[in-house]
Automatic annotation (TrEMBL):
Domain of life where this protein originates: Bacteria
Organism field: Polaribacter vadi
Keywords: Cell membrane, Membrane, Signal, Transmembrane, Transmembrane helix
InterPro entries, A to Z: LSM_dom_sf, MS_channel_1st, MS_channel_C, MscS_beta-dom_sf, MscS_channel_2nd, MscS_channel_C_sf, MscS_channel_TM-2, YnaI-like
Annotated TM spans: 167-187, 222-240, 246-268, 289-308
The protein's name: Mechanosensitive ion channel protein MscS
Amino acid sequence: MKTKFWLLLFFPLLTIAQGQSVDSVKVDLSNPNATLTTHLYFLQQDSYQPEKSAKTIYGLEETDAIRKAIKIKKILDGKGLYVDLKKVTTNPAHIDSIGYSAYSRYILFPDRMPDIYLEKINNNWYYSSETVAKIDAIYSNVFPWYVEELQDSIPVYGHKKFLGVELWQFVALLLVFGIALLIFAFTKKIAFWILQRVQHQITKTNINFEVKIVLKKLAHPISLLISLAFVDLIFPSLQFSLEVNAWVFLAINIARTIFWIYVFLKLVKVVMQIYGEFTERTHGRLDDQLVPILHNFLTGLVLVVGFFNVLKLFGVDTTTLIAGATIGGLAVALASQDTVKNLIGTIMIFMDKPFHIDDWIEAGEVVGTVEKVGFRSTRVRAADTSIYQIPNSKLSEMVVNNKGLRLFRRYNTNLGVRYDTPPALIEAFVNGVRQIVIEHPETRSDSYNVEFTGFGDSALLIMVNVYFKSLAWSTEQTSKHRLHMAIIKLAAELGVEFAFPSTTVTIEQFPDKSNLSPKYDTSQAKINASINKVLTEFKKDTPPENTPEN
């Protein structure tokens, strides 16, 4: 009895207190946060007063304003757009800066629903006139005409709930995903056909096997994106709660972002595959080194942009994050100036192209063949097969002698013969060397010098200046070997001896000792026979076909 007494006493007081708490929330349009609170609070089931919610619509009669206010909430709920009032500004003088202009407006969801926003009118905040004018069209896009007719045609048993979801919603959900699978299978073939046509129009070549595989992989996420667009369009019509819609559309947007990342990664691979085939047809191999560098750079760029888009879906302010990353990046750049210099040096090398892969270069003390140009350094292999890693910042500032760009390889040397060699043999020897140069298949017969140029400390100097046709270092050494052997054979046949550093002491009379000086045969017949013999043997030693390495 006492319990019933106290309940009867306090129940009216509790009811009055509850009514006062509902009535204590008043219409407030002083700032964006208050306007959104007014709109959403008075459309909740336990505080439903649509006439108060309609106060957020400016310039319309109450009936039209109520209809517009209800439609705005249904659109937000249908697209899973949860308004977090804790993040909405309470500043009455809020300014939204766009470009060079500033407006007194507040956009709720700039990325997903930019057409619904508030604006300041006569010191109060309302839904903008543009939003009010577009709301019917937006509502029709979110909830097509057939939605209301479908709901009216649902029988009573279709509204029975299982796990909080009505039976018709289960059926409709299965139907939507079934249609999405059919769209995926159909659009995958169409996307692959279109990609093949685009590739053929751009490259004007038939598609090869590797590119075909990449295009098939690229068509897969494109068809998935089309299927997701269908689900995104239809799902609000299923009339799930705001909580369910919020999670579903978050999953859809995450999947869409991941698929777009996959699409761009495969697109980068296709473009790099096509560009790689193009560089293989060019003469220089420096472009071949640019392919992996560009591939890594573009892949990193796609992943970074995709990562920021995923963070944006979870409500992270990417603008602040990028600004922080920029400042941090500047600090890192200042701390690692050498790395930045090397990156700039890499760009300058690819722009200026002072050398190509496999070119023989001289850069400071480093002499060798360029094997690889990377982000940070260039790898040069010396003649002894050792490796030099030259930072690109230093290499871009060095004086680089690119011997790979020479038209011919110049070879210059001096032959020293004994001072007591007769003039006739010197002349014969010079003429013989000239004939060897002319007959040599790897030397230019139209540009050479073989002359008696001077008097050395211990020898008469004969200059040999020739140009080898091949630019390959190994071929040049082979050509030198053949030239040297022919000259030595010529000297041996003529009886010309090469001098070495020596001091000659002349003794006019020495008992019982004969003169040690060599006996030279200067007869013209002997000279001609010796030259002809050496040239004949040299021609026999020449291969029938000798293709220089380029």
